[in-house]
Design a protein that fits this description.
Blueprint lengths: L1 E7 L15 H24 L4 E4 L11 H12 L5 E4 L12 H4 L6 E3 L6 E6 L2 E5 L23 E7 L1 E2 L12 E2 L2 H5 L4 E5 L5 E3 L4 E3 L17 E6 L4 E5 L6 E8 L6 H16 L7 E8 L1 E2 L7 H12 L3 E6 L2 E2 L3 H5 L4 H13 L4 H18 L8
Parallel strand pairs: 1-2, 2-3, 3-4, 6-7, 7-10, 8-9, 10-12, 15-16, 16-18, 17-19
Antiparallel strand pairs: 1-13, 5-6, 11-12, 13-14
Helix pairs in contact: 5-6, 8-9
Bound molecules: manganese (II) ion (MN).
């Protein structure tokens, strides 16, 4: 026996992409791109002779997905028949009453795992896939709490959305916590997972996170796509990660500490952007530009102007600028001036005495905008 599967997770259909600064047409293109990624994954699975496509949760975003998404999924999955589709709902697409999963009549080739504990689905002679569903978005159970069935000599795989505790990225939410050491201990040859958007193929423990098929944040900058999983009769599992993403995310860092004018800032930002985007299709690139360094307060480097200039310069689809600069001049130095500027700086300094962190940030902004305005600049928001 040698059986092939194609595994994906964290597609996040219908995502708003507001976090990447997308609006209007660009947001629509990104959402259409997610649908394309699913269709491409199925096409690849068919071409590679896969028995099934396994989807480890976060297929769609419950809050935004509606009837049109359900219709798209039905049509897409039906076109893959007789190849099977195994669905294991996660935290963004939990199996809630009234969810797309619950209310849709799925084609015969679709198997929806619907219990909170792993339940078996025989995929082929000697190969069982055990899957579960998050029944609520905040589920905290251990996906590997129950072991695979008896020693029937067959190969058992687990399919679920969960947070492997040994490899959790900083700040990533814990939904369905488990440890990779338990995969083999509970009788599974591999765990086909979803939740972490960065790809992780750990052959030693049998842990697989395919990564989101298309980048959903600026930090998802590596190659991504489905992973082809081949299972031999003796339980050996091979993983073939594909790089199939059509969209790209990247970050450029522009040092603007020497900038004396808006022109200097734009030049530094565009130069850094050109390097970061090198070789990528600009029309499907999402670029974040970080402005760093100590900058003269009087330089009017508002993010909207920088974003517009970079988009014009590189032709990238989306640009988000983060102003991470800090003011070069001290309040005390400016406050010594016998000018309106000086009086303004002294007033800010006075207000800053005993101010908390939030208040201090507000005062930093007040100082920046105030000094820009007094310098005659057109003030734009950071
Ligand atoms: Mn996700």
């Amino acid at each position: 026996m040698s059986i092939r599967l194609l595994h994906i997770a964290d597609l996040h259909l219908d995502r708003a992409f507001a976090g990447m600064g997308c609006q209007g047409e660009l947001a629509i293109r990104r959402r259409l791109g997610l649908r394309d990624a699913l269709r491409r994954a199925g096409q690849t699975a068919l071409e590679r002779g896969c028995s099934a496509v396994t989807i480890g949760g976060d297929l769609y975003e419950h809050d935004r997905a509606g009837a049109a998404t359900a219709a798209f999924l039905v049509e897409t999955f039906a076109a893959w028949q007789p190849m099977q589709v195994l669905l294991a709902p996660g935290n963004h697409d939990a199996l809630l009453t009234g969810s797309i999963y619950s209310r849709t009549e799925w084609p015969a080739n679709v198997h929806l795992f619907s219990s909170e504990t792993l339940s078996p689905h025989q995929l082929a002679d000697g190969l069982t896939v055990w899957g579960l569903a998050h029944l609520e978005p905040a589920w905290q159970g251990d996906p590997l709490a129950s072991p695979a069935g008896s020693g029937d000599g067959g190969v058992h795989l687990a399919l679920f959305h969960g947070a492997e505790l040994g490899s959790r990225p900083d700040g990533k939410s814990i939904h369905g916590p488990f440890r990779s050491a338990d995969i083999r201990a509970r009788g599974f040859a591999a765990a086909l997972c979803g939740h972490y958007h960065r790809r992780r193929v750990d052959e030693a423990s049998g842990l697989l996170y395919p990564g989101s098929p298309e980048p959903l944040t600026f930090d998802e900058d590596e190659a991504r796509g489905p992973v082809i999983v081949s299972i031999a009769g003796d339980g050996t599992v091979d993983y073939e990660p594909l790089a199939d993403n059509r969209w790209h995310a990247c970050t450029a860092v522009a040092e603007v500490g020497d900038a004396r004018s808006l022109g200097d800032v734009l030049q530094a930002a565009c130069a850094a952007a050109a390097v970061a985007c090198g070789g990528r299709d600009p029309d499907r690139t999402m670029l974040r530009v970080d402005l760093r360094g100590q900058i003269d307060q009087a330089v009017p480097a508002d993010t909207f102007t920088v974003e517009t200039a970079v988009r014009d310069g590189c032709g990238v689809a989306g640009v988000r600028v983060r102003d991470l600069t800090s003011p070069a001049l001290s309040v005390a130095a400016i406050g010594a001036e016998a000018t309106v500027r000086g009086a303004f700086a002294r007033a800010v300094a006075e207000a800053a005495e005993g101010a908390g962190d939030d208040e201090q940030r507000l005062l930093d902004d007040a100082l920046r905008y105030g000094l820009q305005a007094l310098g005659g600049a057109e003030v734009g928001l950071r």
